[in-house]
Design brief:
It is built from 25 helices and 27 strands. Strand 25, helix 22 and strand 26 form a beta-alpha-beta unit.
Length: 726
């Protein structure tokens, strides 16, 4: 059947800037360092009518708040960004256009290439039998071509943003070198600085590609089934209730429910699960996952901008813009470091000549200090590691909603678990059936199922499931009475059958009492069954441990977690039985849901930093009270995604040790980057006073350091862990 093509619907009014709130979002191209982001923030913030501006450097995003709403046109903001040397496009139209731009169209690349050619020619002719003015002319051309953008950006940053930026420091250093007759070194500074900026931009694009790769997971079109056949439509045209066709090997285009067919679906892109999941009618599927072998028809439940994948992308972008404590330290350090070194450079240029020293040698040292003052490597050392760690986690089904949470996980020594649905499956199951007479155990279960078929109690569901699994059939009771808090009574096959706890059966024999106590000590609830006044058997029911829970507890200890606590509303006996099986250190039992937050506060007072693991909905107060709240199994749940600091997209406890190891690896990388960035500055400051270094060597070291810390941070994108199967 030939597919028809349906055009997307006309854009809605909400696609433009949000004039009701005064909130604007832009994609910014050309940012190659964190200092660029601060320059843009300050310049845009000084635009008349702008209340605030915030740049997410790693996501290439500019968010602007204007007051009153609508008074500032997008063009004014875009012009200011353009004057700063960059390009801003409204987010709704700019994202795709900017991502598709080739590297050679970067505005830095061509001037840098031309300037490099002039510099190399000048350097070659400097040793050739040509007039001395010719190499100087070529060096001057290299400075003009490669330095125009640098000087322009530095000027606008000073005048409009009142910012003493890196570009201005470079401009002063190059002009000083030229006035000092150091044309070759001035040209070298321009070329090396420009090359470094271009390389940093390309390197950062690799980090940003971690998010762009998420955006590429979902197909751009879907095969829509409508009356009259199948139609190819953009995913933006889908609405709730549409039915889309997913053939073998195709990516699923929207969140929805399987309406027809059956298949296995690779959900690793969303949940991090390495094993494909079987899907049958009624099961949920997610946009961006892959149908493996069967034919599916999926009823759309969420439009394109509201899918789980879209929410993940949005949350990861927000997380990249958040600042971890280590980054706040770096920002504070850089805030006083650059002005201090600038004052030191001025003092070096002025004070020794006033004391009778020759001017030019000390001016040269001052220019070298200006170059060293650039904090590029230091400023980029933390955010690039944070974005790489967050991106790596998202690819493994671990959604970390900020650098602060990623850093906090590295120092967590105590983890508290909700029991039901977290350590256990949250679904009671029959574990034992025992007959006390000559009846078979199946007969005890059959009669109990007949009574429980009229009950709404959770344990009744466990009895009915067990009876179905054994293929049993039971009669409809002719009468039924719920005995609140104790059990139920019904007339089954003209006889009274009672199912309930030991409170309904006074005078139990020692043998039966002993058996009931033994089962309760093992954490199991017991249901006694009688017929016509005679006790005929008992049924034990228990919540089952989640697969891999015990192994995860062991892996957490191996990862360095000192203490593991379980929070539960169960009694001490049941909680103790579960804790004993898992090897948990501490139990806090008999807790009502609203008391768990108090338990977390008490744990924090006792142990300091505490992580809480729960389901993200019922445990919301406790998650919010913890140092880090971790919700698990939240794929498709907006509430859980919003509640937690970290979300495990699949019901997979094994991701917890992985999360801890990833966070600690990230923190080690950050500390190594900071130490290296500060250390290289200190070394060159000392070398400057001994006259060992030079302008071009200083800029080479600064650029090289920035590239090294960026590359070191980006190693986290390839982080591998024994528990990571992605």
């Amino acid at each position: 059947m030939a597919l028809q093509t349906i055009d997307p619907p006309a854009p809605k009014a909400a696609v433009g800037p949000d004039l009701s709130t005064g909130s604007r979002a832009f994609t910014v191209a050309g940012m190659d360092c964190a200092d660029c982001a601060r320059t843009i923030e300050r310049q845009v913030a000084h635009v008349s009518g702008v209340r605030s501006a915030r740049v997410n450097f790693l996501a290439s995003r500019l968010d602007v708040q204007v007051e009153p709403p609508g008074i500032v046109a997008d063009e004014a903001i875009q012009r200011t960004v353009r004057d700063a040397g960059y390009q801003a496009v409204p987010m709704q139209t700019g994202r795709v256009a900017l991502e598709q731009r080739s590297w050679w169209r970067n505005p830095i690349v061509v001037p840098t290439a031309v300037a490099s050619l002039f510099w190399l020619l000048g350097f070659a002719l400097q040793y050739a039998p040509v007039p001395a003015a010719l190499p100087i002319l070529l060096y001057a051309l290299a400075i003009l071509v490669g330095g125009y953008r640098i000087a322009r950006n530095g000027f606008f940053a000073l005048v409009r943003g009142r910012t003493l930026g890196i570009d201005l420091l470079m401009t002063i250093a190059v002009i000083g070198a030229a006035l000092n007759g150091e044309w070759s070194e001035g040209a070298a500074v321009v070329v090396l600085f420009s090359v470094g900026a271009a390389l940093e931009g390309l390197t950062m694009d690799r980090a940003r590609n971690a998010i762009r790769s998420l955006m590429d997971l979902a197909p751009r079109t879907a095969t829509l089934r409508r009356a009259g056949g199948e139609h190819e439509v953009p995913v933006e045209a889908l609405v709730a209730g549409d039915v889309v066709v997913i053939r073998p090997g195709a990516q699923i285009a929207a969140d929805g429910l399987v309406a027809f067919g059956g298949s296995t679906v690779d959900q690793s892109s969303i949940t991090g699960e390495s094993i494909p999941i079987e899907k049958v009618p009624g099961d949920q599927v997610f946009a961006g996952t892959t149908n493996e072998r069967g034919y599916l028809e999926v009823e759309v439940t969420r439009v394109a901008q509201d899918t789980t994948l879209a929410r993940i992308i949005s949350l990861v972008e927000e997380a990249q813009g958040s600042r971890a404590p280590a980054q706040r330290f770096v920002d504070r350090f850089a805030a006083w470091y650059t002005p201090l070194v600038l004052l030191l450079a001025i003092a070096v240029a002025v004070v020794p000549p006033l004391l009778g020293e020759p001017f030019l040698p000390w001016l040269y040292k001052a220019l070298v200090l200006l170059v060293i003052a650039c904090p590029c490597a230091l400023v980029i050392s933390t955010p690039v590691s944070i974005v790489a760690g967050i991106a790596r986690g998202s690819r493994s089904g671990v959604l970390i909603k900020g650098g602060a949470h990623l850093e906090a996980m590295a120092s967590i020594g105590v983890i508290a678990f909700d029991k039901t649905g977290t350590l256990t499956q949250g679904r009671p199951a029959v574990t034992d059936v025992r007959a006390f007479s000559d009846l078979a155990s199946d007969e005890v279960l059959r009669l109990a199922a007949a009574v429980e078929s009229r009950s709404e109690h959770p344990l009744a569901g466990a009895v009915l499931r067990a009876a179905r699994e054994r293929g049993l059939r039971w009669p409809e009771p002719s009468t039924f009475e719920a005995l609140t808090g104790r059990g139920a009574r019904a007339t089954v096959e003209d006889e009274i059958v009672i199912v309930g706890n030991r409170g309904l059966f006074p005078g139990l024999s020692d043998e039966v009492s002993s058996e009931v106590s033994r089962l309760q000590d093992a954490g199991k609830a017991t249901l006694l069954v009688s017929r016509a006044g005679t006790l005929i058997g008992l049924i034990a029911v228990a919540d089952q441990l989640r697969a891999g829970a015990k192994q995860t507890i062991g892996a957490l200890r191996a990862a360095g977690v000192r203490r593991i606590v379980m929070l539960t509303g169960d009694n001490d006996r049941t909680a103790g039985a579960i804790a004993g099986q898992l090897g948990i250190d501490e139990i806090r039992a008999n807790l009502l849901p609203d008391h768990k937050a108090g338990a977390i506060a008490a744990l924090r007072g006792e142990y300091g930093q505490v992580a809480m693991v729960g389901d993200g909905v019922n445990d919301a107060p406790a998650l919010a009270s913890a140092t880090v709240g971790i919700a698990m199994g939240v794929a498709g749940s907006d509430t859980a995604l919003e509640t937690a600091d970290i979300a495990l997209m699949a019901d997979d406890l094994s991701k917890l040790p992985y999360l801890i190891r990833l966070s600690r690896s990230t923190l080690r990388t950050i500390r190594a980057n900071i130490a290296f960035a500060i250390g290289i500055k200190v070394v060159f400051l000392l070398l400057t006073f001994f006259g060992v270094t030079s302008l071009w060597l200083a800029i080479l070291a600064d650029t090289g350091a920035a590239l090294l810390v960026t590359a070191n941070g980006m190693r986290l994108l390839a982080y591998r862990d024994p528990g990571d199967s992605v």
